[in-house]
C-alpha cells in the first residue's frame, strides 16, 4: 500500500508543484490538497487513519501552521513536515516552535531550478523513516537495554567539553537535553545539527529562548569557553584545534557538511578521554563510528534511545557498534551531563 499525503499550503502554485512531484513518486498513492489549517484539521478529522504524511506551510490565513500541527497531532499519529519559506531569524525562530507543537522536521521551500520530482524525493527521504516508526503497520521495536548509569563504566576524568551531533528530529531533542543542563554550563558545548543553509540563526534564537543557554553560531578562530553552545554554521565542517573553533570547506562526509564525524574526530584528538560525546535523533550513520572510537579511548558517550527518537539511525548505529555508555531520552542525557561537567579532579579520585 502506498502513502497518502496531505499538502497544506495557501499557494496554489506551490500546491501544484508539490502534487506533481509527489504523484511521480512510486511510493505515493494519493495527494490531497488543503489551503488552510482549518481545512487540514477537518480533512484529518473525517479521514480516520487514511493519511501517512502532512506537509505544512507556516504562514496561512486563519489558523497558521504551528497551531495546525498541534491540533492535527492531537487527532492522529502521522508524520508532519513543515516546509517553510521564511528566512528572517525571528520568523524562523517562530517556525521552529512547530517542532514543539508536533511537527517532526522542517524543510526549506525549493530554490530556483529545483524540479518537482527532485524536491518530492527529498521530502520522502526525510519522511519515510518517520512514517515507518509510526504504528500504522507495526510498533517500533523497543530500544535495546544497556546497564543503568550506576553500572556503566565510570568516567575516570573530568569532562572539559561536550560535543553533540543530531539530524532529523534533532532540534527538539537538543532543546530537551539543554533544558536539563543548568545555565551557564561550566564547559563549552559544541553542536552539529544537519540543517538547511540559512536556518541556523533562527534555530539558534529558538534554542536559546527555550533552553536559557547562550547559543552562538561558531566563527573561525573563536576561543572555546564555558557558558556557551557553539553551533556549527551550515555548509562548513567544525573542528576543535588548540582550544579554538576551526571551520573548513573540506569535502562532505556521509553526504553532509557539517558532519558529526569530523567534529568527534577533532574532539578526540584535542581532549583525549576528557570530553563527552552525544548522538541524538537522526538518519544515517554520521558520528557513530567515531563515537565508538571515543568510548574506546575513555570518553563518556551518550545516545538517544529508540523510543524517544524520531529516527534512530545515528544513535542506533553507535549502539550497535558498542559505542554507547548511556542510552536514554534527551532529558535524562542532559541531567547526566549536568552531573558530569561539574565533577572535579578530587571528585574523580574519590
Automatic annotation (TrEMBL):
Its EC number is 3.1.1.61. Residues 156-344 form the CheB-type methylesterase domain. SMART domains: REC. PROSITE patterns: CHEB (PS50122), RESPONSE_REGULATORY (PS50110). This is protein-glutamate methylesterase. The keyword Phosphoprotein applies. The active site is at residues 167, 194, 286. It catalyses: [protein]-L-glutamate 5-O-methyl ester + H2O = L-glutamyl-[protein] + methanol + H(+). Signal peptide: none annotated. InterPro entries: CheB-like, CheB_C, CheY-like_superfamily, Sig_transdc_resp-reg_Me-estase, Sig_transdc_resp-reg_receiver. One of its GO terms (cellular component) is cytoplasm.
Amino acid at each position: 500500500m502506498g502513502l497518502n499525503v496531505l499538502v497544506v499550503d495557501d499557494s496554489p502554485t506551490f500546491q501544484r508543484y508539490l502534487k506533481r512531484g509527489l504523484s511521480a513518486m512510486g511510493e505515493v498513492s494519493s495527494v490531497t490538497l488543503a489551503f488552510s489549517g482549518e481545512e487540514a484539521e477537518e480533512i484529518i478529522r473525517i479521514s480516520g487513519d487514511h493519511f501517512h504524511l502532512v506537509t505544512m506551510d507556516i504562514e496561512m490565513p486563519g489558523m497558521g501552521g504551528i497551531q495546525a500541527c498541534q491540533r492535527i497531532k492531537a487527532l492522529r499519529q502521522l508524520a508532519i513536515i513543515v516546509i517553510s519559506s521564511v528566512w528572517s531569524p525571528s520568523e524562523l525562530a517562530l517556525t521552529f516552535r512547530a517542532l514543539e507543537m508536533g511537527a517532526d522536521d522542517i524543510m526549506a521551500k525549493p530554490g530556483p531550478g529545483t524540479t518537482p520530482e527532485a524536491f518530492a524525493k527529498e521530502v520522502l527521504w526525510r519522511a519515510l523513516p518517520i512514517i515507518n516508526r509510526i504504528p500504522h503497520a507495526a510498533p517500533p521495536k523497543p530500544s535495546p537495554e544497556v546497564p543503568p548509569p550506576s553500572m556503566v563504566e565510570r568516567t575516570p576524568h573530568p569532562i572539559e567539553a561536550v560535543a553533540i551531533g543530531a539530524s532529523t528530529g534533532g532540534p527538539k531533542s537538543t532543546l530537551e537535553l539543554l533544558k536539563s543542563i543548568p545555565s551557564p554550563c561550566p564547559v563549552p558545548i559544541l553542536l552539529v545539527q544537519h540543517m538547511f543553509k540559512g536556518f541556523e540563526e533562527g534555530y539558534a534564537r529558538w534554542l536559546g529562548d527555550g533552553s536559557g543557554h547562550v547559543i552562538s553560531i561558531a566563527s573561525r578562530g573563536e576561543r572555546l569557553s564555558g557558558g556557551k553552545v557553539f553551533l556549527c554554521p551550515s555548509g562548513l565542517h567544525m573542528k576543535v584545534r588548540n582550544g579554538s573553533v576551526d571551520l573548513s570547506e573540506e569535502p562532505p562526509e556521509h553526504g553532509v557538511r557539517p558532519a558529526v564525524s569530523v567534529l568527534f574526530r577533532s574532539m578526540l584528538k584535542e581532549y583525549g578521554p576528557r570530553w563527552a560525546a552525544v548522538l541524538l535523533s537522526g538518519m544515517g550513520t554520521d558520528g557513530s563510528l567515531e563515537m565508538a572510537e571515543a568510548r574506546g579511548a575513555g570518553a563518556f558517550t551518550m545516545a538517544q534511545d529508540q523510543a524517544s527518537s524520531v529516527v534512530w539511525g545515528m544513535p542506533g548505529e553507535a549502539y550497535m557498534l558498542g559505542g554507547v555508555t548511556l542510552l536514554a531520552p534527551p532529558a535524562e542525557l542532559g541531567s547526566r551531563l549536568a552531573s558530569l561537567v561539574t565533577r572535579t579532579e578530587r571528585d574523580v579520585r574519590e
